[in-house]
Amino acid sequence: MADRVSLVSANLVTVGIESFLYGIVFLLSLTFSYLHVSRAVGSNSTYGRARLSRIVTPIFVGTVFVFSTCTTHWCLTMTRLFQAFVIYEGGAAPLLFYASLSEPTEVAKTAVVIATLIGADIMIAYRMWIVWGKNWYVVIVPMLTVLGLCVSGIGIVVTLAGLNDGETVFVTSAAHWITADYATTFVTNIYSSAMIAFKVWKADRNTGKSYGGGNLKRVLATIIESAGIYTIYVVVFFAAYESDSNLQFTFVDTLCQVAGISFMMINVRVGLGWADTGNNISQASSGGFQPRRNLDQSYVMRPVAVDISTVVYKDDDLSQPTTKGDLPEQYRAV
């Protein structure tokens, strides 16, 4: 398989696929940012610093970070395309350029991929922490795996920077770090997604039909879809890498954008109101959930005119009820 896919072909395919995926990341990022900012600014109950705090949330900061790394990675991919076919040796030796894994732009691109994975893993772990009512015990595993991702990521970057000409990414010194890197991000996503899914299932069981038509099930579908895309992609990358195929370059270079899409999908669905907040899920799973609207979802009450006719009974010979308007002025209530 490795002989059938040339290094140049794998990188050319990467340019097309990554450009398409980056377009999706760009669209999802803009959509979430617009929904998030408009909701925070449109809230009548917050002003000044309070409104700013509603905008600059951990999820929004994570969105900006992941979008920045995805953009940087795409720019580096396009830069390397011009370097290979225009700048390096006048464009006469693209194979030699792509084969040099210690080239600065290749090392920088790898570092950006690691940064994206770290950011996405921290955000999925943060969501799980919120859903579980900010329980620190449930995030022990993600904390350890993210730490392992950071260490192995640094190991990959240092190893690639020290490779000699002619050495490939399949050498033993790099293989150990790469395996550890993607094993840790795999565990983080599977564990966090499973814990969120369990909490959602528990909340749905406790609330029954009182929560409003399966909103929690839509949350579960959102988490499974987003995590499933990323997890499957990581598995495919592992398969390509273990088979010593040059296709692994395509998968690893587009993994950055896939991680961004997986992260942004959840953000956009929450922004559109297709999924509920983690606090509501946490309350529902504990059995103490009371449906309520957020401040930015509440309706403004309009003035209502009420015409009240008061009936007063007089003790007279006719015993006929008389309205307040029929009474003499001295007997009318003030």
Automatic annotation (TrEMBL):
The chain crosses the membrane at residues 12-35, 55-74, 81-101, 107-129, 136-163, 175-198, 219-241, 247-266. Keywords: Membrane, Transmembrane, Transmembrane helix. This is Family A G protein-coupled receptor-like protein. The lineage of its organism: Eukaryota, Fungi, Dikarya, Basidiomycota, Agaricomycotina.
